[in-house]
């Protein structure tokens, strides 16, 4: 719920400019019980939406129409491709968050997306890769330049069940090549744990170790640019693995970077049971682990 101070701030800037109005909305959002990565992603979408409104000559968020919303939701991506169904639904979610905040500030405000229907997403669950698909991903990774390519190293860590948020944090001191394990730091709600390298991953890291400094604070997956912000690092890693999967001929709503991590957990499930698989995933619920690993094969 908006505070009295936020309502006063809103009344001061209402109608002045989209940018000043958006500042109040984002301040209101910052107090919501959302993960920082989720908040940053939604804020980025809303900022882009606001930019479109300014370019179109819209003076205030209170003047947004259904047509403005539809234009944003179905707009091509930065690469001029049609947006995926996942992206379309995420954009609508961001808009509804914006309009929910506006309603807290303007009680008479009506959400223009109330009558906006989108195609159903279908079953959103991500499935584990198959053994054949993991092999294809490895071949694609090694073909990208050489064995030390970032994509290959990221794939090796993802196979241990590391998330895209954990991979950028793994340093050589976390790797035990003799035991073929990697200490994974966890990231709420995922618990810290020990991941096991696949024979392929262990071999890759052993070869690359000669070019690095085992036991040091160096990152296993070398960083290009500054990723001090964990959200930026995670996004960059997700993008890297997404490109790798696509280059290996794998795409679709059920195949995402998480599919690699789920493959690693599925190996544990087959050899040690559901409890060990849940531990490998870093989750506490056995039912949640079971549902995740039994996601349907359908990808279209």
Uncertain regions spanning at least 5 consecutive residues? none
Mean of pLDDT: 86
CATH architecture of the largest domain: Orthogonal Bundle
Order of helices and strands: HHHHHHHEEEHHHHH
Distance from N terminus to C terminus (CA atoms, Å) equals: 40 Å
According to DSSP, the number of beta strands is 3
Main sheet strand line-up: 1-2-3
CATH class of the largest domain: Mainly Alpha
By CATH, the topology of the largest domain is hpI Integrase, Chain A
Class of secondary structure makeup: mainly alpha
* SS element count, helices: 12
What is the name of the CATH superfamily of the largest domain? Intergrase catalytic core
| Cα-based radius of gyration, to the nearest Å | 22 Å
Categorize the overall geometry.
Answer: elongated
Proportion of residues in extended strands: under 5%
Helix content estimate = 40-55%
Secondary-structure blueprint:
Blueprint: H1 4-13, H2 18-29, H3 36-55, H4 66-73, H5 85-105, H6 131-142, H7 150-158, E1 175-176, E2 181-184, E3 193-196, H8 199-208, H9 230-247, H10 258-272, H11 274-281, H12 286-293
Antiparallel strand pairs: 1-2, 2-3
Helix pairs in contact: 1-2, 2-3, 3-5, 7-8, 7-9, 10-11, 11-12
Report a brief summary of the structure:
The protein is mainly alpha-helical and 300 residues long.
């Amino acid at each position: 719920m908006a505070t009295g101070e936020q309502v006063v701030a809103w009344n001061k800037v209402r109608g002045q400019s989209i940018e000043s109005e958006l500042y109040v909305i984002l301040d209101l959002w910052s107090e919501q019980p959302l993960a920082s990565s989720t908040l940053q992603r939604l804020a980025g979408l809303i900022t882009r939406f606001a930019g479109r409104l300014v370019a179109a000559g819209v003076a205030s968020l209170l003047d947004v129409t259904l047509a403005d919303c539809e234009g944003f939701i179905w707009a091509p991506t930065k690469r001029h491709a049609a947006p995926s169904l996942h992206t379309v639904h995420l954009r609508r979610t961001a808009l509804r968050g914006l309009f929910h905040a506006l309603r807290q500030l303007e009680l008479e405000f009506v959400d223009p997306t109330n009558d906006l229907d989108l195609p159903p997403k279908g079953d959103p669950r991500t499935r584990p890769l198959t053994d054949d698909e993991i092999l294809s991903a490895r071949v694609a990774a090694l073909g990208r330049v050489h064995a030390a390519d970032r994509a290959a190293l990221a794939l090796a860590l993802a196979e241990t069940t590391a998330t895209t948020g954990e991979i950028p944090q793994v340093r050589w001191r976390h790797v035990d090549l003799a035991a073929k394990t990697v200490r994974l730091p966890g990231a709420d709600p995922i618990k810290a744990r020990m991941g096991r390298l696949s024979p392929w991953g262990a071999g890759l890291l052993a070869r690359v170790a000669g070019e690095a400094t085992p036991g040091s604070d160096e990152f296993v997956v070398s960083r290009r640019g500054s990723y001090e912000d964990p959200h930026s690092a995670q996004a960059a890693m997700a993008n890297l693995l997404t490109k790798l999967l696509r280059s290996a001929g794998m795409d679709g709503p059920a195949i995402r970077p998480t599919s690699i991590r789920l493959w690693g957990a599925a190996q544990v499930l087959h050899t040690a049971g559901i409890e060990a698989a849940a531990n490998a995933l870093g989750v506490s619920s056995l039912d949640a682990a079971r549902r995740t690993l039994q996601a349907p094969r359908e990808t279209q």
